[in-house]
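Q: Please design a sequence for this.
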C-alpha cells in the first residue's frame, strides 16, 4: 500500500460519490493523508454518518447531498465545498452508476440515459465548476473511469461507453495544466463495492471469472484505488497530466 503520510497535507478536497465504495474509502484515505474533505453523494444518512465518523477521528470533514447528474445540484455542491473549505485545490469525481448487463439490442433507452447522465454528465457538471474554482491558485482533479473505459469488459454497454467518455473529458481538460491545474483519470479493475457486490450476487461465479482476467487474480480493496487517486492529486504526480492510470491488477496489460 502507498505510504500516504502527509501526501495531501493542507489540501482542500471535494469527493463525489462519497457515501460508499471507492468514494468512502477516498474520504478516509484523503483525510489520513492530511486533506480537509467535502463529501458529496445522493444518500444523506450514509454521507452524514461518514462525515461524523471522520470528525470523531479528528479530521476536517463536511458534506452535502447532491445528485451530480443535475447541473444545478453539482454547481451548488462545488460552491458549498469552496465556501466550507475556504477554497478548492483537489477534486475526485468518483460518482458513478451502472445497470445489469443485457444484450445491446435489448437495452432499454432509459437505462442508457441514466448511466450517461451520472457517469458522463455528472463528471462534466462537476469538473467545469471545479476548474473555475481552481483557476486562481491551481490544483488537481482526478476522474474515476474504469478498465471498461479502456477495453470492452463484461459490463453493460452504456457503462463501457460512459467510462470511455470520462477518459475523453480528462484528455480534453489536459490543457489546463498551463494554468496550474492537472487533470487525470484512474481506471480501476474489479473492486469491492456495493455496486459490484450486487452484480456478483446476480451472477454467481462472475467474481472468480473476473479475477482470472488479471495477472494479479483478486478483487481490489477500495482503499487501493483511493490511494492511487490520492497520489495523482499530490505533488508527487506533478508531471502527470491528461493520463489515465490503470489500477487493475494488470488486466489491461494482457
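A: Design:
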Amino acid at each position: 500500500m502507498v505510504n500516504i503520510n502527509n501526501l495531501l497535507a493542507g489540501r482542500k478536497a471535494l469527493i463525489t460519490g462519497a457515501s460508499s465504495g471507492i468514494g468512502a474509502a477516498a474520504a478516509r484515505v484523503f483525510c489520513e493523508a492530511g486533506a480537509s474533505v467535502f463529501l458529496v453523494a445522493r444518500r444523506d444518512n450514509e454521507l452524514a454518518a461518514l462525515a461524523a465518523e471522520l470528525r470523531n477521528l479528528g479530521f476536517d470533514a463536511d458534506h452535502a447531498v447532491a445528485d451530480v447528474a443535475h447541473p444545478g445540484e453539482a454547481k451548488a455542491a462545488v460552491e458549498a465545498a469552496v465556501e466550507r473549505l475556504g477554497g478548492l485545490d483537489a477534486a475526485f469525481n468518483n460518482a458513478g452508476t451502472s445497470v445489469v448487463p443485457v444484450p445491446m439490442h435489448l437495452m432499454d433507452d432509459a437505462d442508457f440515459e441514466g448511466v450517461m447522465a451520472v457517469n458522463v454528465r455528472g463528471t462534466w457538471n462537476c469538473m467545469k465548476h471545479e476548474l473555475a474554482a481552481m483557476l486562481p491558485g491551481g490544483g488537481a482533479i482526478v476522474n474515476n473511469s474504469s478498465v471498461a473505459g479502456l477495453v470492452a469488459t463484461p459490463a453493460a454497454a452504456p457503462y463501457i461507453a460512459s467510462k470511455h467518455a470520462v477518459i475523453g473529458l480528462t484528455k480534453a481538460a489536459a490543457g489546463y495544466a498551463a494554468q496550474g491545474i492537472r487533470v487525470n483519470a484512474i481506471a480501476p479493475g474489479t473492486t469491492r463495492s456495493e455496486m459490484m457486490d450486487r452484480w456478483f450476487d446476480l451472477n454467481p461465479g462472475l467474481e472468480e471469472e473476473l479475477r482470472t482476467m488479471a495477472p494479479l487474480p483478486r478483487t481490489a480493496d477500495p482503499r487501493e484505488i483511493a490511494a492511487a487517486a490520492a497520489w495523482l492529486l499530490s505533488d508527487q504526480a506533478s508531471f502527470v497530466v491528461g493520463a489515465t492510470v490503470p489500477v487493475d491488477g494488470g488486466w489491461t496489460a494482457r
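Q: Thanks. Anything notable?
A: The two ends are 23 Å apart (CA to CA). The first helix runs from residue 21 to 32.
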